[in-house]
Amino acid sequence: MQANQQLTFLQEKIQEIGSAIFFNQSDSVLKLPASIVNTLKVDDYGFVWFYIQKPKQDLREFDKEFPVRLDFFRKGTHYFLQVTGKAFMVIDPEEMNATEETLPEDVRQKGAGSVLVKVKILKAEYHDTSSSPRAAHTSWWQNAVSSVYTWFRNSNGVYHRPEVYHPASLN
Description:
Layout: H1 3-17, E1 19-24, E2 35-42, E3 47-53, E4 65-72, E5 79-90, H2 93-100, H3 105-110, E6 114-128, H4 140-152, E7 163-165
Antiparallel strand pairs: 1-2, 1-4, 2-3, 3-6, 4-5, 5-6, 6-7
């Protein structure tokens, strides 16, 4: 898959799922907490944009850039993504205005009291879980356990190897 196709593929899959669990992987004492985030956009430079709840502490006390992991999963999809990258808090007024101008008004309103964050995708693991057969008569608990199991093993009992993309090296 060529560089542009990889990034387009990731953009489509991330937008399709729409939300992720945000994990700050910094060793810093003061860091943004793990939370659920809704993707605003994935740009052509490989940045995932979203708002995160503004912490009570002054933003100047936090690292401006830090390592993160984003886990994209949605019930009913046949795949999930694990994205690792470098996050940047967008606090420069010019950059915030330029970015927010491209967003719909209702999204900008939801951003009040939040911090705009962009994550440069350094690595993305795409896990296809559609190969596992699911019987219609199984309980919700069995389906849940089966789903988690298929994240790590395919239907033949062999460990699942995800497709790995490195879009940061593409630009």
